[in-house]
Amino acid sequence: MSGQGTVTGPAAGATAGLTEADLPWLEELQGRTVVVKFGGNAMVDPALHRTFAQDVVELWHAGLRPVVVHGGGPQISAMLDRLDLEVRFEAGLRVTTPETMDVVRMVLTGQVQRDLVGALNAHGPFAVGMSGEDAHTMTAVRRPAWVDGRPVDIGLVGEVVAVEPGTVRTLLDQGRIPVVSPVARGEDGEVYNVNADLAASALAVALGAERLVVLTDVEGLYADWPHSTEVIDRLTAAELDALLPGLASGMLPKMEGCLRAVRGGVRRAHVVDGRVPHALLRGVFAEEGPGTTVVPDEEPGNGTEEDRP
User: Fold this and answer.
1) Which of 55, 192, 200, 304 satisfies CB 3.0 to 4.6 Å to 140 for a cystine?
2) Helices 73-82 and 98-107, interaxial angle, to 10°?
3) How far apart are CA 149 and CA 184, in angstroms?
């Protein structure tokens, strides 16, 4: 595969929503890795699904190295319903029995991943699907849910404790777009269901990514939910750390993933509304993008005009 640069085909023109002030980031991000967590409504809305694929290919054409980590909660729940298996959550995490884990693997790697790879490859031979199990890319240990300060056993749910990014890097070096399912194997031989937000964060750190972008179904992190829909546009790691204990269960893993990413060396993490077409491009390229941006504490000036590249 050759010549990242000029945008052609269906993805051309997708950056029309960017302003001239955003374009310096194009040069700044040349050759840099961007990890994108794909989830929420954009996964089940066909038009948004196609637009997302166009945006990822646009990132590739612009000279970036995109990696996609996808979720699949709605699709897993739908299949469990069809099979008459229980759908249950504790503290925002799916209770995963061995029977549920079989469905998780089947849906994530056999349905959701294949659909996304197909959408990306409609624009050319870009995407290659894999899971965290492949080549020991992700290793996990069993984790509980915490309810009222007490651990609750939720079955085969894992926390990523090690990442071996060599296979992903090889695909990137070959000009491919890795599409990763958040399933990991443990040293105990079990296979674990891993939260996609935290899997994307762990992979971003291991790859030394420049950006982590998390797509969700809200506009960003609300300052005072549910009393206000005002979005916090920018936070330092320390500011976010102070807010984490009070966050709702749905937003908690997303913001925890952002916090882990910037503390692990990722320069910026963004939570953006995946219901808005081309929000991914704005989240990557714009200095003052949509949603909520998390930056490291040690970043000089935390992005004032004097400190921008």
Assistant:
1) 192
2) 120
3) 26
Q: Closest Cα to residue 270, out of 227, 240, 243?
A: 240
8 Å CB contact between 212 and 266? yes
Please say whether the beta carbons of 262 and 296 come within 8 A: yes
Write down the residue that tokens 């599409």 correspond to.
179
Q: How far apart are CA 20 and CA 18, in angstroms?
A: 7
Cβ-contact 212, 296 below 8 angstroms: no
Closest to 283 in 3D by CA, of 204, 222, 198, 216: 216
Distance, in Å, from the CA atom of 178 to the CA atom of 129, rounded to the nearest integer, reads: 6
What pLDDT digit, counting tens, does each position of 105-163 carry? 999 999 999 999 999 999 999 999 999 999 999 999 999 988 888 999 999 999 999 99
The model's pTM is 0.88
Q: Find the angle CA(256)-CA(45)-CA(198) to the nearest 5 degrees.
A: 15
- Strand, coil or helix: 189: coil
Query: Which residue type occupies 123?
Result: H
Relative to beta strand 145-147, strand 150-152 is: antiparallel
Distance CA 12, CA 2 (A): 17
Q: Rounded to whole angstroms, how far apart are CA atoms 204 and 7?
A: 25
Rounded to a whole number, what is the largest CA-CA distance in the chain? 58
The full length of the chain comes to 309
| Pairwise CA distance, residues 140 & 97, whole Å | 16
In sequence order, the β-bridge partners of residue 270 are 213, 293
Which residues make Cβ contacts (< 8 Å) with residue 118, sequence separation at least 6? none
> Can you tell me which residue has the tokens 């549920």?
100
Phi and psi at 109, nearest 5°, equal -90, -25
**9 secondary structure, DSSP code:** G
